[in-house]
Design goal:
The complex is a heterodimer of chains A (185) and B (295). Chain A has 185 residues and is an all-alpha fold. Chain A has one domain. Helices cover 74% and strands 0% of the residues of chain A. Chain A has seven helices and no strands. In chain B, 37% of the residues lie in helices and 23% in strands. In chain B, the strands form two sheets. Chain B has a six-stranded antiparallel beta barrel. A six-stranded antiparallel beta sheet of chain B has the order 8-7-6-9-10-11, with no helix packed on it. The C terminus of chain B is likely disordered. The chains are: A mainly alpha (185), B alpha+beta (295). Chains A and B meet through helix 3, helix 4, helix 5, helix 6 and helix 7 of A and helix 1, helix 2, strand 1 and strand 2 of B.
């Protein structure tokens, strides 16, 4: 729908093989770059609180791409990213998958209004979402290991995600306009 | 690409998300019911990723080394003075240790002491932190023809790190002593009292089930106990520290936040195996540390 080729069907360039490959690579950028980020943040980089950084980064990427380029990050891709994060970690399977899918459905519901707002409002919305997601995954985790877990790491994770978002959004905005733009192909 | 009519495509797009949420829910239930399946799928992924992480490790170590060195540059003179003082103190202790060792050998010879068999070990590199916010575990890269088995003990240069919980073709997962599923029988060195060390996902695991008349003392050393035949006796675990809520915790002797290389010891123990592996749930429930409360 956001694809200008569909809005102006008359001026579509001839889809050569190279152009189609370029288009596919740009469309796959959000999912593949997020997967790469997950894999890199599992390596022992010696960063403090790396586990929280990983889930915060995943949430920020899912939020950004669902908001600005939902066609390039379909629910199936979010499902796959959640599965990857779950398999990389040692917590029960399904927690990241569930929280990321629900986060994306919320973003897709409000994106029409949110996409027109200023950055500060988007950031505020992200903060609320990060808190909700952290509490959801905390509750799911406690339920699945059937033990009382301290909610402090979850709240910390949400705070870290909020703090990380502007820097990550800057990088992702550059990618959104250049590398990940299928209409530029 | 298959051409579908626009209403059909919209209907499919609306249905995808609920279907995926349902699928996730089903996978959560399956993952909870069949732990072995989860472990197998995880190990397949780990086996595929371990060589990549192993290649990535040397540059990462180099970068970390540069940052660590830059930090140390500013305190060189002070560090030198501290180290010289410590060296002098340690030399005295070395003399004491050598004398005690000689005495120990003489006493053991007189007592016809049966020595413990020396344990085999392999050294492996930690290639990934696979914990997550609510779990503590690391991934090791082991060669394709490795002899690593579940239940082997992982130590770093300081002390106990954890136990091997899952083994694949070229990788192994170690459940750290800080993980919420970790239960370790320990001995408090001064009182020789037994206790359980229980992970809470925080940096320091908690001591529980110590004898009521002998509470752990602040600063007391904690070592493993051979009870339940899961660990060899007397591996260093850490020291007791009472937290703000006056709950005894153990500050691990191993540097769990910066693990690079661990040694995996094969003590050929046939006792309890680590949790979250291929034991059926009813046996895991029966093996839970509740059995130790009676002591």
């Amino acid at each position: 729908m956001a694809d200008p080729a569909q809005q102006h069907p008359g001026i579509r360039p001839r889809p050569s093989l190279g152009r189609r490959l370029d288009h596919a690579a740009r469309a796959a950028f959000p999912a593949s770059s997020t997967a790469l980020l997950l894999l890199l943040l599992a390596a022992p980089t010696g960063l403090v609180q790396q586990a929280a950084l990983q889930s915060a980064g995943l949430l920020a990427c899912v939020f950004f791409w669902s908001l600005y380029r939902p066609a390039s990050l379909p629910p199936l891709a979010v499902f796959g990213l959640g599965l990857l994060a779950d398999l990389l970690g040692n917590a029960p399977i399904g927690i990241d998958m569930m929280s990321m899918l629900l986060a994306q459905s919320v973003v897709l519901r409000v994106r029409r209004g949110l996409v027109r707002q200023s950055f500060a409002w988007v950031w505020f919305a992200f903060a609320l979402l990060a808190l909700a997601v952290a509490l959801l995954s905390w509750a799911l985790d406690a339920l699945l290991v059937f033990a009382w877990l301290s909610p402090a790491p979850a709240v910390f994770e949400a705070a870290l995600a909020c703090g990380l978002y502007p820097a990550l959004a800057l990088l992702l905005t550059l990618a959104h306009r250049g590398l990940a733009a299928p209409e530029e192909a | 690409m298959i051409r579908l009519s626009i209403p059909l495509r919209q209907a499919l797009a609306r249905l995808t998300l609920p279907m995926l949420v349902l699928l996730t829910f089903a996978m959560m239930l399956i993952g909870k019911a069949d732990v072995a399946l989860t472990a197998r799928v995880r190990m397949t992924l780990d086996d595929a990723l371990a060589p990549i992480y192993a290649e990535l490790a040397p540059p990462l170590v180099a970068v970390r080394g540069v940052f660590a060195n830059a930090g140390r540059m500013f305190s060189l003179a002070r560090d030198n003075a501290v180290l010289r003082a410590e060296n002098a103190r340690l030399r005295q202790w070395q003399a004491v240790a050598v004398a005690l060792d000689a005495e120990n050998i003489a006493l053991k010879a007189n007592l016809r002491w049966l020595p413990d068999p020396p344990a085999d070990y392999v050294t492996a590199r930690v290639v990934a932190d696979v914990g997550g916010v609510y779990a503590r575990a690391v991934l090791l890269s082991v060669g394709p023809n490795h002899s690593v088995r579940r239940g082997q003990i992982a130590l770093d240069r300081g002390g106990l790190v954890g136990r091997v919980s899952e083994v694949g073709g070229r990788s192994a997962r170690v459940l750290l002593i800080t993980d919420i599923n970790s239960r370790i029988p320990v001995t408090l060195v001064d009182s020789r009292a037994h206790a359980m060390l229980i992970g809470t996902n925080a940096a320091m695991p908690r001591l529980m089930f110590w004898p009521e008349e002998q509470p752990p003392r602040e600063g007391e050393r904690v070592v493993t106990s051979a009870e339940a035949d899961a660990f060899p006796p007397n591996l260093p675990v850490g020291v007791v520290h009472y937290n703000a809520a006056h709950v005894p915790e153990v500050r691990p002797a191993a540097d769990l936040s910066r693990l690079e290389i661990v040694r995996l010891f094969d003590y050929d123990l046939r006792g309890l195996l680590p949790p979250e592996a291929d034991l059926p749930p009813e046996r895991r429930a029966a093996n839970a540390p509740r059995a130790h409360v009676a002591h």
